[in-house]
Structure formats: structure tokens, C-alpha cells
């Protein structure tokens, strides 16, 4: 169950910042207290960063990065990469540790806060941030705070897509806010599934369906989560939705057998 219906506002015309959307996820999963704690941590980080940059009339991107990934301790969490602590913004802010997409969201927020132009890049397998140094856009790995060369980006791409993959212009285009939010929810859901926290994973799936209500693949995934939680009829409903909308998908036949195994009585499959 979601703690709030705050995600209902995601489809409205009201402008919401990327950080606000990330905090919406925290509130939807864990309530207003968790969101308030996140905002306290965010304010503390902003104040510490302002103190680090106080001698700069107009801070540069390099000065901001050096402060964040230096004395302020922001860093990628190599040791617990798949932990939900690295996906939930309240825990990322309190620990100053995360994965590329959460640290990227935080970096984008702080760049905006200190007047530095930046944009997110939905790079395959590894979220990136483009930051402007004077008039030049430079690609930064938010996991390390380092500038990436084209060769390093190609290595990341091959790790995600195979050795024959090559960088194309669409790999480096700016990502929309809701696309970044979708990516955040997907990695958070995957982390919960990895740790067999199926109720929390289901909550993420429900949020994803707020963004894409008729996505058959998300309905299929939600069905698997319902099945894990012994909600057999709800699982069957989602599986049937997928079968109806993707009858040629190889998974459709598997799901037909899955529905029979749920022992729900006769079903009409299309």
C-alpha cells in the first residue's frame, strides 16, 4: 500500500522539480516523516556547500564538483551497490552515498541551486550528467564526480549493450524529468526484488503505473509481484492484460500456463 496519493499530481500541469519528484517517491513509500528527514539532510548539504563556495563570486562547475566529491563526502557506493539505501533519496542524502541515478539527481539539484547549467543523460546502464564549464558541456559520471572521455563512455556502453555497441547521438541527449523518475523507480523496484522485499517492490510498480497506466510490461511485472504476495486473482488479471495486449510475445504462452497454475478456475484467454 502506498502511504500517500501524492503521485496523483505527477500527471498534472503543475511544474515539479526532479528532486521534488524523487522525494515524492520517498513519501509515497515511507510517509511524510521520511520526506521531512530528507529535506533536513538536503538543507544541511546545501548549507555546507554554500560555505565551501563562499569565497567564489560565481562558483564554477569544477569548484562545485571538487567540494561535493571532496570535503563534503559525496561518493558512489561500490560495496553495497544494489542496496535500497542507494535508491531512496532520504537515505542517499543522510549517507551521501548512492548510485549514478540518485547521485545524478542530487548533482542536478545542486547545480540548479548554485546557478550552474546541467542536464541529465539517460545513458544505457549508467546515468550521466552534462555540466557546463563556461560554454562547453562536459559529461560527468555522478558516481565518481569525474569527467568522462568518449572512450570511457564507450566502455560503459559496451558493458551495458555488448562489445559491438557504439555511441550514437541519442545516447547522449538530455533526458526528460519523468524519464529520469521512471529510471529511478525501476532501479528502486529492482533493488527491492533483489532483497525479496516484494511489498515495497509492488509499491514501486504501482508508482510506475501512475506514469504509464497502460504499459503491458509493467502490468506483467506487477503480476509477478502480486503472485509473490499470494494475491492470485490480481496476478491473473495483470497476466491476462499482458496476454491480450502482447499475444505474440514469447512470454504470453508462459503466462497462460502460469494462470492455470494459480488454480483460479476456467479462464478465457485471447
UniProtKB/TrEMBL annotation:
It comes from Oceanisphaera sediminis. PANTHER family: F-BOX ONLY PROTEIN 21, SI:DKEY-261L7.2. Residues 41-186 form the Protein SirB1 N-terminal domain. It holds the Pfam family TPR_9. This is Tetratricopeptide repeat protein. SUPFAM superfamilies: TPR-like. Belongs to the UPF0162 family.
